[in-house]
TrEMBL record:
Principal subcellular localization: membrane
Protein name: S26 family signal peptidase
Keyword Membrane in record: yes
Any single GO CC term annotated in Swiss-Prot or TrEMBL for this entry: membrane
Biased composition (Basic and acidic residues): 23-76
Region annotated Disordered, chain positions: 1-82, 306-338
Lineage: Archaea, Methanobacteriati, Methanobacteriota, Stenosarchaea group, Halobacteria
Transmembrane segments: 103-124
C-alpha cells in the first residue's frame, strides 16, 4: 500500500475521534439540559417578583427592606455644633451650664430693669434708700425712693425749668407730694465734701432778696434778716427743710441756698422697706472700701439717704450720728459700694 493510499494522518484521526467523543457527550447530556431548562422555566414568577420588589424598593432602602436616610453630602454638617451647644445650654437642668445660664439671665434682668429705670428717670442712680428720719413721717428709714431729673414731668407750677414746686407755691395751687405741699428734691452741696441731701423745697429766693418776711418764723432762730447767715440771699436758689427738722437747712447750717445746677433729682415714688436691702449691703461692704471721688459714687444703682439731718449717703456712706441742740449732725464715714 502506498503512502497516499494509507489511512488518514494521525492528526485527522484524532480530530475524528474527538468529534465522535464530543457528539457522544452531547448526546449523553440531553436530560441535564432539559432539567436546567425546566428549572429556569419553573422560576419565572420568582424572578418577576424579585424584579418588582427591586423596582418598588426605595432608592434609600437597605437589602432588608428598612429605609435608611439618604447619604449626606460631604459639605453638610451632621449637626451644627453651635445649635447643639445652644440647645444644651438652654435646656440643661443641672451642672455648670445651668449655673451659667441662671447667672446670665439674672444679670440681664438686672441690666434690663436698670436701663428701663434710667430711661424713665433720666438720672443715675434712679433710686435712693432712706437711712434715717429727717423726712418723717412722709419718708421713713428703709424706704426706697425713685427719683427723676429735675425738668422731667415738671408741673405747671414749677419754678422755671427746674421742675420743682416750692411749698409756698404748693399751698397756693394745691400741689402736694409725699404728704405735704411742694417737691422733695435731692441736691448736692458744692461748698463741702460729702453726700447730697434729700429735703423739701420751701421757698425760691432771688439774688440779694431779703426772704425773712416770706419764711415761717417757727423755722428760724432769728428776729430779722441780718441774723441769718444766708439773708439777703447771696444768689438765686431754693430754701429747703427736712419735714421732721425744726429749722430750714439754710438756718441750721446744713446747706446754702440750693441753686438749680445743684439739684440732682426730684423724688417721685417711695417703696417702704425695700431700701433695707440696700442699707444692709452698704453695712456689709463699707469696711472693705476706701474713699472714692463723688463722680465715682454716681455710678451706683442706688444711693443711701441719711435723713436725720438730711444727708443722702451716696452709695452707702456709714454715719456716726450725734445730737447737738435742735438738729442732728452726721459725720461721714467710709463710703461703701453698691
Amino acid at each position: 500500500m502506498s503512502a497516499g493510499d494509507g489511512p488518514p494522518s494521525g492528526d485527522d484521526g484524532t480530530g475524528s475521534s474527538a468529534g465522535s467523543d464530543a457528539g457522544r457527550n452531547e448526546s449523553d447530556r440531553p436530560a441535564e439540559s432539559k432539567t436546567d431548562a425546566r428549572n429556569e422555566s419553573d422560576r419565572p414568577a420568582e424572578s418577576k417578583t424579585d424584579a418588582r420588589s427591586e423596582s418598588d424598593r426605595p432608592a434609600d432602602a437597605d437589602p432588608t427592606g428598612r429605609e435608611t436616610p439618604p447619604p449626606r453630602r460631604a459639605s453638610e454638617p451632621s449637626d451644627s455644633s453651635d445649635e447643639n451647644l445652644l440647645r444644651r445650654f438652654w435646656y440643661a437642668e443641672d451642672g455648670p451650664l445651668m449655673f451659667v445660664r441662671e447667672v446670665l439671665t439674672s444679670v440681664l434682668a438686672v441690666v434690663a430693669v436698670g436701663l428701663l429705670l434710667f430711661a424713665i428717670s433720666g438720672v443715675w442712680p434712679p433710686m435712693v434708700a432712706v437711712e434715717s428720719g429727717s423726712m418723717e413721717p412722709h419718708m421713713s428709714r428703709g424706704d426706697l425712693v425713685f427719683i427723676t431729673e429735675p425738668g422731667r414731668y415738671a408741673p405747671d407750677a414749677a419754678v422755671g425749668d427746674t421742675g420743682v414746686v416750692t411749698h409756698e407755691t404748693g399751698v397756693q395751687t394745691g400741689y402736694r407730694t409725699f404728704g405735704d405741699h411742694g417737691s422733695v428734691i435731692i441736691y448736692d452741696r458744692p461748698d463741702r465734701f460729702g453726700p447730697p441731701v434729700i429735703h423739701r423745697a420751701r421757698l425760691h429766693v432771688e439774688d440779694g432778696e431779703n426772704w425773712y418776711d416770706r419764711a415761717n418764723p417757727e423755722y428760724m432762730d432769728a428776729s430779722n434778716c441780718q441774723q441769718l447767715q444766708y439773708c439777703p440771699a447771696p444768689y438765686a436758689g431754693f430754701i429747703t427743710k427736712g419735714d421732721a427738722n425744726p429749722q430750714y437747712d439754710q438756718v441750721s447750717g446744713i446747706a446754702a441756698p440750693v441753686q438749680e445746677r445743684d439739684i440732682a433729682g426730684v423724688a417721685r415714688v417711695r417703696v417702704p422697706y425695700l431700701g433695707y436691702v440696700r442699707l444692709g449691703f452698704a453695712t456689709a461692704t463699707q469696711a472693705e472700701v476706701g474713699d472714692e471721688p463723688k463722680h465715682a459714687r454716681r455710678l451706683q444703682f442706688s444711693t443711701i439717704v441719711s435723713s436725720r439731718n438730711g444727708g443722702v449717703h451716696h452709695p452707702a456712706e456709714s454715719s456716726a450720728v450725734r445730737v447737738s441742740g435742735a438738729h442732728t449732725s452726721v459725720s461721714t464715714g467710709t463710703p461703701a459700694v453698691a
